[in-house]
Write a structure and sequence with these properties.
heterodimer; A: 14 helices; 2 strands; B: about 400 residues; four-stranded antiparallel sheet; three-stranded antiparallel sheet; about 40% helix; globular
Chain lengths: ~300, ~400
């Protein structure tokens, strides 16, 4: 039996070789339960395709389209539009996970934009193998985890960051928000009942993990799935340190720092208690701790 | 009383003009000995004088039992040698280094003695010279590594003097401490002996200080800033630092790069470096100042302090300040950025500090503009993008030059 099969049987997904942006997209989609089409953003930010840029993706056609939609001033030339597209591609496609998704192209799985904001969530079927939804569910069963989720929700609704403002003309309006509507559990169960000899249902799986979560949140994040803990830390630290001006505590009026307690310090401490001391883990925690120190300083 | 102790401990150093808050209250004075650097010329000089003034050592030198010992004692007692030795220790301080008293004591005492018994019997043998002993490699002592890394004149080229040292008889004998030129036969002049000559040149030649004349300009400038308050107040220096920081995020120079510090933002989920930086907030150079640390007025009489850093400080309209601590490594990094060093070759430590500084500045609520500056590292392309006043339309896109 291959390693991938074992992982899939035990965890429900293959935790390796997953881009952090896919975990982030899955996690945030399950959190907000909403998505946008983002057609204009996709057509503008995608600047290459294996078959060449065609239809609305071609520079000339896009120039006309954007001017018609009053997103681009007609005084901006096609050559200048090319400059703009390169910059936007660098910003929202920073994790190499955006592809042409609208006509004439067929949408591939795993399109995800690199911005921490609810207005950038797109993919109906995130390519995270259920891990984002799974971590969300587990976090929701602990007091500390709920605080993390609250913070993440707050972050997702913070729309004043420099990066988001630059891309704002291409985003869908609030009225175009769509319910996400992807049924993880049903999809998970149907996938497993078809492939496994003893079906691992989502509820069974979740019960198993909730037990660990109630014992110690960090046990889940450190001892049982290194990949998930790694992704959570990566996305958590990105979410906190780079999503624009820091949010403030409602009463203390101090820089929001509680998240670090959960994302970093506690995870690290618990990891040590759990005896989790692999070299890679140490390096990861060291990196995240440095960010922690930086954010605190 | 404890509150006063806490207050003094939390303000170990003072920056800018003296104020009343620096005075001690309640007849409590906290003297933080960690501020005392044993490498300071006052301290190290006194230690050296104490050593050289030892009657036992002087008697041993006078006995003639060890000619090399007597020679080292005599030379180290010369003001020229003494002063230049202390200058080398000061170079370590400027680079943020220090040494324990014990280690310094051992290191200075070793200068009198030769490295091996074999060298004892050969008067003037390189291994017995104080100038060689000072730069001995000895892993037990950190000061040995520091001197080798930051203060050894043998590793600082000076084509004109190097050429003369390679050719015996081309320097004026009267310029040397002993009145004659130290000479090695050309056939013996290997790398280690040439290094020996260069060190002797530094310590004993009238123009020995020129040994460091061609070292990196930023090294001399940094020492000058710390020593001279007026040099620190120079607006050119401020502009130069802002220039370096902007280059860290946008390595393509653009007009006004020295006039404003852009608050760059980059984001990538993956741990790889981001491909894009964007800024729509900036602070003009006039908003910053450079301040060099000093001892609070309450401690001025207690000990000597040699600064090893300065602050690039921004004071917001609400009175909050955000500072970047610029020490020698960071100063060198900023200088190297201006020389074209790419960002991916910079030490993480320095990049993290610059990131943290910009993040802190963003928390001060600096006005966000509708004009963005974006740099794409993959295409090496800097672009200025202007949005309409309501932020819903791109009205100008130009290369940022």
């Amino acid at each position: 039996m291959s390693k991938e099969t074992v992982h899939f049987e035990a965890l429900g997904y293959e935790p390796f070789r997953m881009k952090p942006v896919h975990f982030a997209a899955g996690f945030f989609l399950s959190l907000t339960n909403a998505r946008y089409e983002l057609e204009m953003l996709n057509k503008t930010a995608v600047i290459k395709h294996k078959t060449g840029l065609r239809d609305d993706y071609a520079h000339d056609n896009l120039h006309g389209l954007l001017c018609e939609q009053q997103v681009l001033d007609p005084s901006v030339s096609v050559d200048e539009l090319k400059l703009l597209r390169v910059q936007l591609n660098g910003i929202v496609g920073n994790d190499d996970a955006i592809y042409g998704s609208f006509k004439p192209y067929k949408k591939p799985p795993g399109v995800a934009y690199t911005v921490v904001s609810s207005r950038y969530l797109y993919d109906e079927q995130p390519l995270d193998g259920f891990s984002g939804y799974f971590v969300h569910q587990v976090l929701a069963h602990t007091t500390q985890g709920k605080a993390v989720l609250d913070f993440a929700r707050m972050r997702m609704e913070h729309h004043a960051s420099t990066l988001e403002q630059l891309v704002a003309p291409l985003l869908d309006g609030e009225g175009e928000r769509q319910p996400f509507g992807f049924d993880y559990e049903q999809t998970f169960d149907s996938t497993h009942s078809a492939s496994a000899t003893s079906p691992l249902t989502w509820q069974r799986k979740l019960r198993r993990w909730k037990f660990f979560a109630k014992t110690s949140l960090s046990t889940l994040l450190t001892q049982h799935s290194y990949a998930v803990s790694r992704l959570v830390c990566a996305v958590g630290s990105s979410c906190i340190s780079t999503a624009g001006p820091p949010l403030r505590m409602d009463s203390a009026n101090e820089r929001l720092s509680f998240s670090w307690i959960f994302w970093v310090a506690r995870i690290r401490a618990c990891a040590q208690r759990a005896g989790y001391r692999s070299r890679a883990s140490a390096a990861l925690f060291s990196r995240v701790t440095r960010r922690f120190a930086r954010a605190r300083s | 009383m404890l509150a006063e102790v806490n207050r003094q401990c939390s303000a170990r150093l003072a920056y800018g003009a003296p104020d009343a808050g620096e005075a001690a209250n309640e007849r409590v004075l906290v003297v933080d000995l960690s501020l005392r650097n044993p490498l300071h010329p006052d301290f190290a000089g006194a230690l050296l004088d104490r050593l050289l003034g030892s009657r036992a050592l002087q008697q041993h030198a006078a006995s003639g039992a060890e000619p090399n010992f007597a020679r080292n004692l005599a030379h180290l007692s010369q003001p020229r040698v003494r002063d230049r030795l202390l200058v080398l220790l000061r170079r370590l301080i400027v680079r943020g280094e220090r040494a324990p008293v014990r280690e310094l004591w051992i290191w200075l005492a070793r200068l009198l003695f030769s490295a091996s018994p074999a060298a004892d019997g050969v008067p003037g043998a390189p291994a017995a010279l104080y100038s060689e002993r000072f730069f001995d490699i000895d892993d037990r002592f950190r000061i040995a590594q520091l001197l080798a890394a930051h203060a050894d004149p043998a590793w600082c080229s000076h084509p004109q003097w190097d050429d003369r040292l390679e050719h015996p008889g081309t320097t004026a004998a009267g310029d040397w401490l002993e009145g004659n030129e130290p000479v090695f036969a050309l056939g013996e002049l290997d790398a280690s002996r040439f290094a020996c000559l260069k060190r002797l040149f530094y310590f004993e030649h009238a123009r020995g200080e020129e040994a460091f004349a061609l070292e990196d300009q930023h090294a001399r400038l940094f020492a000058q800033i710390l020593a001279d308050v007026e040099a620190a107040a120079d607006s050119l220096l401020l502009r130069s630092i802002l220039h370096g920081i902007n280059l860290c995020y946008c390595p393509k120079p653009f007009r006004g790069i020295e006039e404003r510090l852009h608050l760059w933002v980059g984001h990538r989920y993956h741990e790889l470096p981001t491909r894009s930086y964007v800024a729509n907030q900036s602070i003009p150079v006039s908003g910053f100042e450079i301040v060099v640390p000093r001892l609070p007025t309450r401690l001025r009489a207690a000990l000597e302090y040699q600064p090893d850093h300065f602050l690039l400080r921004y004071r917001a309209t609400n009175g909050r300040t955000v500072s970047l601590r610029v020490d020698y490594p960071l100063f060198a990094t900023l200088s190297q950025l201006k020389s074209g060093l790419p960002r991916h070759l910079l030490p993480d430590r320095d990049i993290n500090r610059l990131d943290a500084f910009l993040e802190q500045l963003q928390t001060l609520g600096v006005q966000q503009e509708r004009e963005f500056v974006a740099f794409n590292t993959e295409h090496r392309m800097a672009t200025r993008i202007r949005l309409s006043a309501d932020g819903t339309r791109y009205i100008e896109v130009k290369p940022h030059e």
